[in-house]
Amino acid sequence: MASDIENRQPTPLRQHLARLYDGRDTAAIRFQFALMVIDLAIIGFFLAGPYIRDRPSYLILDYAIAAWIAIEMLAQWGASRTTRGFLLRPMTWIDLFVLGTLLFPHLLFNFAFLRVARIWAVAQRPVFKLMLNRLGLKEQTDVVTAFLNLFVFLFLVTGFVYTFFFYAEDAGSGFIDALYFTVATVTTTGFGDITLPGTFGKLTSIVTMIIGISLFVRLAQAIVRPYKVTFPCPECGLQRHDADAVHCKACGHVLNIPDEGM
């Protein structure tokens, strides 16, 4: 059936938005970097929430951020080729959830920390590698990506633990306790001086250990192993090769690896 769920007719505004969100030119990179800075500012608001939630300015900032997220979601919908594709994106539902918590701050917990997932989403795009290339970090792409994955996970878990277990405590010590617990759990140090109570707390600890140690090991591997580029061999399909490889190590096929900096 013909509806907005199918491919919509491109308009100048939609094309411009699509270039900003998915493009690789200078304007698109600056735009996407600005979005990351705004997301970090929203996370800062989440951290400052316990300090200012009794002040009149709290609701003003809260609803201003809610308005920004709503406008950005409309822009992302406009940049999407189909409504279906927009609705299938995990970040769409994360933003909707965060928006709900901001619209009803006295009824729901503040889950603004979930916005850190946007950094992970940006790191999965090709433009992220282009940004690293321009910063002279081409050979550290795997290390930076692994570090961001671990950072995002640490902050997501810290925010989750802080919201559900330490939100009623002093803002500074509560967040530090949540971060301390998360790092100790991910590294399997397990000092035991800070633990999460009840069955829900134990399940949270289990999930944190299983996923966290995997990301921690992946970061260590990315640091010690030599730099390789991702380029599928036309003959055998081997994905990873040395940056200056001429032949595939698996089958000996001649490779023509393009220069990512070009």
From TrEMBL:
Pfam families: Ion_trans_2. It is found in: Membrane. The chain crosses the membrane at residues 33-52, 58-75, 96-123, 143-168, 200-220. GO terms for biological process: monoatomic ion transmembrane transport. Residues 153-224 form the Potassium channel domain. Coiled coil: none annotated. This is Voltage-gated potassium channel. It comes from Peteryoungia aggregata LMG 23059.
